[in-house]
Amino acid sequence: MKKLETEVLVIGAGLAGTSAGLSACQMGKKVLVLAPDGGASAMSSGALDIADDILAVRGKPEHWSKAIESNLEQILIRSPNHPYKLLGDNAKAVIEQIKSAFALVFSEEDKFIGGDGLNNRYVFNQLGTFKSTAFSQARMLGIEDLAQGRDCLLVNFRGFRDFDAEFFKNNFLYWTEKLGAKIKLEICEISSDGIKSKSSLEMAKWISENFDQALDQIRKEIKNCNTGIIIFPPILPQEKRQELLNLVEAEGKNKAYELLSLPPSVPGKRLQGYLEKRLRRAGVERILGKAVGFKSQAQKLLSVKVQTAQDEFEIVSKKFILASGGFLAGGIVKQGEFKENVFGLKVFCEEKPLGRIFTEKLTELRIVEPQPVFSVGIRTDQSLRALDEDGKIVFENLFIAGSILGGGNYISDRTGGGTAILSGVKAGKEL
Predict the structure, then answer these.
(1) Range list of H helices, 353-404
(2) Is residue 42 helix, strand or coil?
(3) Would you say 371 and 362 are in contact if contact means Cβ atoms under 8 Å apart?
(4) How far is residue 79's CA from residue 72's CA, in Å, rounded to a whole number?
(5) How many CA atoms within 13 Å lie on the side-chain side of 56?
(6) Which range, of 2-11, 165-174, 298-307, 348-357, averages the lowest pLDDT?
(7) Which residues of 154-164 are buried (b: 16+ CB within 10 A; e: fewer)?
(8) Which residue, 136, 129, 121, 176, is CA-closest to 152?
(9) What is the pTM of this model?
(10) What would be the CATH architecture of the domain defined by 141-259?
(11) Bigger pLDDT: 325 or 351?
């Protein structure tokens, strides 16, 4: 069997895997990144969370804490097994690591994301509601963009099945008023050649292929409306997004913004494309394939068997970083019992090892409650090395990063983005 050799093999190419690859590369290591796809990052809404207010009262955003340091303090107190505990012993220490980690992954010159990492913003989504988040892709509509009370124009595309303009309008006007921004919203419709029932990804493709046609229609609608803010659904294609927003703003005294998305997500695909570009720019090779086996000796991993569409081969490495994601990305599966999908690592819920257990025992009756199933993952030592149920290191040269780490409930406490990037960067630096 053919063999490749490297110093660091990263399994997973999402936010955590890319962070790990860039971090190891920065340490002067030869790095390979292995993944069949971009993982759950491709489903991103366009937001990247660090820490939400876990004490927040639902429906009362005027009372929510936006201060990320304060939110982190509450999470560290109430979630003793959270991965943030492995990255710093207090909120200030975690904040400092966040600054340097995000600077490594998201180059300032790219202007890909916005946010200061200190306070959450309220960013609107395609339902007309909003998300409290630390970072979002640049030019996503936040409540602060509406502070002047300027009238808005929503650009709706006919045939876009994933977006209901009137539903959006009703929610949007309710929440903007509740958050202190009194605005008016008009809706214009753009023809998409009479084709019906396009998904968001199909709509983005149509705009890319019919850019001039779409732009001409948008310009005509803008001229007919006396508005200051132009709002687009989350369907702007990656290669045309900045150009379209800039050209729309050039039509007059308008500011143009996009909304956060639900899956299937164009902003998620945009994030995936950006991460791939960052790896290429750093000189990190990406292999499209799946880890289907491994060799080890005592407590040391020796190699991973890889399967691609055309071939099977072996990658020999000195160090391995597992960033294959949780349930959504397929890093953890339940086939009779819960297990990690590459090395068969033990999976935990809090400190309890999971074997054969009904998923219903890990869920709450009310969907709005934190679901224990989403805190399931691998337990590690301070260096992010996987532990077995006796607390012993499984492999000395295997490190864990991202949502496959147990202890954090990334959906309810909204720490997924921070955990992915910080653990990835830390794993890349561990020797």
Answers:
(1) none
(2) helix
(3) yes
(4) 10
(5) 24
(6) 348-357
(7) bbbbebbebbe
(8) 176
(9) 0.93
(10) 3-Layer(aba) Sandwich (3.40)
(11) 325
